[in-house]
Amino acid sequence: MDYTELNRKRGYYNANKHLIPPEIMNRYEKAFIVEYTHNSTAIEGNTFSLIETKLILEDKVSVGGKDLRETFEITNHAKAFDFVKQCVADGKNLDENTVKDIHQIIMENIFPGGIYRNINVRITGAGFQPPSPNEMYIQVKNFYADLPYKKNMLNSIEFSAWTHAEFVKIHPFMDGNGRTARMIMNYQLMSDGWLPADIKKEDRLDYYKTLEIYAVDGNIEPFAELVAELENKELDYMIEVIRQIINQ
Is residue 1 part of a domain? Predict the structure, then answer.
């Protein structure tokens, strides 16, 4: 990915997004949260379809025949994204307490959130295993300490990708690590003026492969490339919206 061109697109979008009428931006944001919630929860096994997710989030209609946990996964994810957007709007840097708050919202009515695990966990099919609880506590503290250093060392797409990949490698919570990792990746993206990225459930094999490359070899480039491609698609869409408005 040409990061120079990607940065140019980000600059164009941020310089011209004020031209987008509020009703069009609101429609885009509503569609994004439905698709993002559907994909992020489906990656973790949620069986709600895209239409069912829309019914819950936009039409406030319950879906029969579904596990209540799955309904909470949908509604909690949308609440967590609203919380993230507010934190970004307030100019708040990502820190440990904020990540715990995000996790707590994601796990509300499902499992006690914001509490680090105290037992070993295994990831089926992965070429690596998360650290033991004692080592995890050390790694998670190092993760937060390393954020300012990594922000200065990496470009902002790589930094957002690293935030996700390193966090999910540590796997600090019993459940909800993937959803939290994708949420804090978008936290970093939006804090740096990018659009939030939506990893599609259909792309989860490539997604898992690139995360494993980082976990095993420490190479963030494949995952950063995946994030950059998603960002490029979102920017292209919004830039086309802006150009259509300008050319009216």
Answer: no
Burial of 7 per CB tally in 10 Å (0-12, 13-18, 19+): middle
Compute the distance between CA of residue 95 and CA of residue 100 in angstroms, rounded to an integer. Answer: 9
- For residue 58, give Cα distances in angstroms to 32, 34, 70, 73, 185: 12, 8, 16, 15, 24
- Burial string for 150-182 (b: 16+ CB within 10 Å, else e) reads bbeebebbbbbbbbbbbbbbbbbbbbbbbbbbb
Options 77, 103, 164, 171, the catalytic residue: 171
Residue 26: how many CB atoms within 10 A of its CB? Answer: 11
Please tell me the predicted confidence (pLDDT) of residue 126: 66
Considering the domain boundaries, does residue 95 fall inside one?
Answer: yes
Structure confidence at residue 24 (pLDDT): 95
Domain count, the chain: 1
Whether 171 is a known active-site residue: answer: yes
What is the domain-level CATH number for residue 119? 1.10.3290.10
Are the C-beta atoms of 139 and 163 separated by less than 8 Å? no
Residue ranges, the chain, pLDDT below 50: none
Report if residue 4 sits inside a domain: no
